[in-house]
Predict the 3D structure of the following.
Amino acid sequence: MGFYQFKRTQFFDVSIDELWEFISKPENLKKITPDYMGFDITSESKGAMYEGMIISYKVSPLLGIKTTWVTEITNVKPKKYFVDEQRIGPYKIWHHQHFLEEKEGGTLMTDIISYQPPFGILGAIANKIVIKQKLKEIFDYRKQALIKLFGK
């Protein structure tokens, strides 16, 4: 039963206000998610997020199999960070922290995902073979999508 962490940082030549305006709206998540994942928000989730907000999605993370994923926004400090945690979905545990930090010339964004796949040892094997690589692939895509939207 492995417990894993994935971390990614990215710098943008935009103000913290501009980046927060984009990432704090759940409907923008589809714009930075690979099309092959079939990502669709199925709940009413328009506007800025807030603590306690529940967001449900349909997504195909592996083999095109649609699954329901429900997350709750558990912590929000505007223009600083927010946290989403899985309530229903493919992982045993999913805790995703999003941090913004104002830097000279722009904003540094850091994502830290702490997760545990289901199925004990089988989940650990799946992480080694598929899950870790899939997270990297998704965040590589996200990085390029955000560069198209905001520049460097």
The chain has one domain: 4-150. The chain has a mean pLDDT of 93. The helical segments are 16-23, 120-150.
